[in-house]
Write a structure and sequence with these properties.
The protein contains 3 helices and 6 strands, in the order ααββαββββ. The protein is of the alpha+beta class and about 140 residues long. The chain has a single domain, classed as Nuclear Transport Factor 2, Chain: A (Roll), CATH 3.10.450. A 6-stranded mixed beta sheet has the order 2-1-6-5-4-3, with helices on one face. The protein is globular. The N and C termini lie far apart (about 50 Å).
Length: about 140
């Protein structure tokens, strides 16, 4: 691999990793529109809590995020590994730890279930910007109180 190809590879890894991290931030901010805009038009999303019930299409993903009850959450993303398939496609795996509580305006206490899960992603470059074409989550561990 030439130095230029290596730099392109590193740039793709960086941009895809940034997309994964931004997903967690927008999710915690309750930004439904921003989250849906991270997917290709025909994107597929499966929540870790519903891995066998994928949501297909950006508009349906937006509806699903809008329908979710308000909560205070923090998604901690780690162990992000990006595999560059081509200049326009990458696959990624990452771990997620979720802490959540009802959003009642007070300083909430995060209550179980605290979840540890995995996302398996397919990312595509469309008109110079990276998107999730598929984001499939699963719960790996539920932590007891």
């Amino acid at each position: 691999m030439s130095e230029i190809e290596m730099m392109r590879h590193v740039l793709i890894e960086h941009e895809c990793s940034r997309l994964i991290k931004r997903f967690a931030l927008l999710n915690d901010a309750g930004d439904s529109e921003g989250l849906a805009a991270m997917f290709t038009e025909d994107g597929v999303f499966a929540r870790p809590s519903a891995p066998h019930d994928p949501i297909c299409g950006r508009s349906e993903i937006l509806k699903a995020f809008r329908a979710r009850p308000s909560r205070l959450s923090r998604h901690v993303t780690s162990n992000i590994v990006i595999d560059v398939v081509s200049p326009t496609e990458a696959h990624a795996t990452s771990y997620i730890i979720l802490y959540a509580a009802a959003n009642d305006g007070q300083a909430p206490i995060a209550t179980p279930p605290h979840l540890i899960g995995t996302f398996k992603d397919t990312l595509k470059l469309v008109e110079g910007k990276w998107f999730f074409s598929q984001r499939l989550g699963q719960v790996d561990l539920k932590l007891s109180p």
